[in-house]
Amino acid sequence: MVRERGKVSFFGYVVRPMMRTGRQFVRSLILGRPNTVLYPHEKLVLPQVYRGKHTLDFKKCIGCGNCLNICPNECMWLEKIEDPELGKIERPGVDLGRCLFCGFCAEVCPTVALHLTTEFELADRERESFVLSPKDIRDDAFASTFKEERQSRKLPYLDLSKCTSCEKCAEECPEMCIAMMPIEKVDKKKPEINLAKCTSCEKCITACPENALVSTEVYESYFETPEPRLLLSKCTGCSACARACPTDAIYMMEMPGSEKTLKDGKKGKPKKRAVFVFEKCVGCGRCFKACKFGAIEMPGVKK
Amino acid sequence: MAEMWINMGPQHPMTHGLWNLRVKVDGETIVDAEPEVGYLHRGIEKICENRTYPQIIPLADRLCYGSSLTWSHLYCMTVEDLMGVEVPERAEYIRVVTLEMQRLASHLMWLAAYAVDLGMMAGFIYSMRDREVLVDLLQSLSGSRLTYNYPRIGGVAHDLPPNWDREALRACNYIETRLKEYEDLYEGSKIFMMRNVDVGLLTKEDALDLGVTGPPLRASGVRYDMRKDRPYSVYSDLDFEVCSRPEGDCFARYRVRIDEMWESCKIIRQAIQRMPKGKWRTVAPRNAPVGTGLGRVEDPRGEGMMYVVGDGSDKPYRLKIRSPIFITVSAAPSMLVGYKMADVVAIMGGLDMCIGECDR
Q1: Contacts of A47 in chain B (CB under 8 A)
Q2: Contacts of B140 in chain A (CB under 8 A)
Q3: What mean pLDDT do residues A85-104 have?
Q4: Is the domain of A137 the same as that of A61?
Q5: Fold of B41-328
Q6: Which of A14, A183, B84, B137 has the most CB atoms in a 10 Å sphere around its CB?
Q7: Residue A114 lies in a domain
Q8: Is the pLDDT of residue A1 over 60?
Q9: Which of B294, B198, B306, B303 has the alpha carbon at shortest distance from B245?
Q10: In a domain, A49, yes or no
Q11: Domain closes at, from A95, A112, A145
């Protein structure tokens, strides 16, 4: 049945494979260049992009929960903790037993606070030890040693409570990327910055007489951030969304002319409404979850 | 002599995963065969319906442990087709380089498994040693050794690290010297040739009728390769040959894979040379439009296809995966009948079975 292919003589089929194995023998044992490392004593150098155990920079983290939303295995959760330095904060914890080490949580983090280290020896005897609380993964120094691949740039962030609608920033902008947009039902205008056009020249920041614009370092996002939308007719002005917002992008503003006339003829306090500053929004959907009246819509976010 | 059925599997060293091959033997000769798959069914297609589009990428990696990058790339390509996302040119070239590296790594892993099936331990150790070079390169690029999670919808996750392209070219040279070594090691061995030549004949007609794709089809004399016949990514700009052999036996399948490795080295060199500078990732939309997307690629094991139906939300309505091995394994009876029991290992090993994608 066996057909001869080319010239495979007696020495051919014995000597040729033997030569190859002999060469490898000489190389690894006599010349001393083995292909393996003695693992527990020697370790391979792992690249920075390696996805191992998580670390979290508490100071950079804003507790937005974007990492929770992207996690395919739902292995992260937000934990309320009291920090002596930072006060009452919410920070994510990780269950390494469920984690598939895809690295999406680090990729989606808007403030690059979450990273995956090169630590891979995570095996343990008990399942409980895989559940890492925020304090277990805290490492504030790690983020500064990590070379970020995502590009950052400085952008003006608006503090709406200080803004007087003087339009000086819009006049100063050389790229014409600031537009004064009127806020509905509030007799005020707020500058809206076209972030795609902004060149980070910071002229608007120096021009602002009230110091309402603050220069902030922002990292580019690879994921489309869903924007919240307000249904004004349903908004009661309870400011639950403003309290929930991790980036302070929601301001409660009074609507003049909405005052109810009380029994004694006096006018009460005017109603409030939420105003979004979209430049600050990270698309976490916490305002949407906090609103009990269905006044905030967010397409594609689970409640 | 009385005929009898023998179960080879689900736990058998030949199977490389969980599947069962029932063979009907008359003495030593195989009269009939029946592959049984489904032991590793995880319901990935159904899980995908409950996950958002980016969340499926690491799941697509887990379809096949041998060539995970191909599957996540295929998934991203399909969703890009659905969403209409333009991929930057640099990302396409990076993808081609990594895909060909994955093909090399996958074929080397097959070679290792095949060698150990045929009782050649040296071949196993050598192939695994050389696969390490490619896996290390892919790890330094993507951050993981087996499930890379590297392609993204609208590009790739990371840019090339400094000096990576030089290292990749060095790895190509290294693999090419090693390929010569394998040719000496395998084709110089009488035992290997006796167990391969004229064993497991799959005729051209049978292969076409049963829908066999990939190296088994090309080894039966059909020059059919998705990269040439329906070019995706930037394969149309690159110069390479489609390897095929007319014999249709196990040796031809082995030879086609070795030739493909030479071609892969050629493709990596060209792609690195032509790689433009620029962006490697774009922002993909969150929600897909209502419609369908289709992607077809040349997996190391055959033609992989995905079909996705979007319903306007951030989750796919349906994701269909066509696995090459699920279809190739149905050709087992036509390859096995007439050969001896001892040939089963060589014949089924030569198909490069991967049960993860077969059962999904």
Answers
A1: 139-140, 143, 161
A2: 47, 49
A3: 87
A4: yes
A5: Cytochrome-c3 Hydrogenase; chain B (1.10.645)
A6: B137
A7: yes
A8: no
A9: B198
A10: no
A11: A145
A86 belongs to a structural domain: yes
Contacts of A102 in chain B (CB under 8 A): 57-58, 149
Query: Is A300 close to B122, i.e. CB distance below 8 A?
Result: no
A278, A207: one domain: no
**Residue A108, in any domain of the structure:** yes
Distance (Å, rounded) from C-alpha B327 to C-alpha B302?
9
CA–CA separation, A130 and A118 (whole Å)? 17
**Whether A49 contacts B159, CB under 8 Å:** no
Interface of B with A (CB under 8 A): 51-52, 54-59, 122, 126, 129, 132, 139-144, 147, 149, 152, 157-159, 161, 181, 184-185, 187-190, 193-194, 197-198, 251, 281, 283-287, 313-314
Residues of B in contact with A222 (CB under 8 A): 152, 281, 283
Write down the domain spans for chain B: 41-328
Q: Which residues of A55-88 are buried (b: 16+ CB within 10 A; e: fewer)?
A: bbbbeebbbbbbbbbbbbeebbbbeebeeeeeee
Which residue type is seen at A129? S
Q: Which of B157, B190, B287 sits opposite A13 (nearest CB)?
A: B190
Pairwise CB contact (< 8 Å): A35 & B159:
no
Q: Are A252 and A246 in contact (CB under 8 A)?
A: no
Which range, A266-275, B92-101, B309-318, has the best average confidence (pLDDT)? B92-101
Q: Say how many domains are in chain A.
A: 3
Residue A233 domain boundaries? 222-303
Average pLDDT, chain A: 81
Same domain for A197 and A274? no
Residue of B56, B184, B283 with shortest CB distance to A222? B283
Q: Which ipTM score applies to this complex?
A: 0.81
